[in-house]
Design a protein that fits this description.
3-stranded antiparallel β-sheet; 63% helix; single chain; mainly alpha; 3% strand; 203 residues
Length: 203
Amino acid sequence: MESLLYRSYEVASANHPFLLEETMTCARMLLDKTSWDVIQQAVVQEHLFATSSATTAQSYLRAIRFRLEGAPPELLALIAHEDERTACYTLFFILMHKNRLLRELLEEPIRDCRLEGIFQISRSDILDFFEFKRENSAALSEWSDSTWRKFWGNTLKSVLETGLLQGSEPLEIVTAPVPAALRKWLLSQKEQLALSLLLDPDV
């Protein structure tokens, strides 16, 4: 999975919402050997995504392409052909590699809480974490306030949509078994750390 790992903060990794249904559609087409150019034509001409405009649909497609390019076919298959929960966790696993801020959120405040036996975290603590990252990163500090708000907002939403955080205030840290098909693949790749970040209780 080293080929998927981004060590810098990339706007493209969180400039749009989670887009699970749209990603599942693209994964099925990619497994059928459909090219990105053909997928783009379908997005525009056949209204492949349920969006209000072709411009928004194409913007979504660019985000999905950034996320899925380089993903092993086994992961595309888990997104395309397994149940929705498995697809959701698999997309989130890919985003963990593309979005450095997401990895750091999981590795630092959320993991620290879990190691201390605490299964709640306040929104203010998460916002403080995000601001600390921005203040201490030359790259993040150069982004506009609106870009930064969208970036950290979509990063946090991806954790909420996957179900690793639930509730409102404080947020509940949810430990639940990673879907069996994804768990089997992760173990075959010796990805125990990923299982830990996905809050699998058996790691």
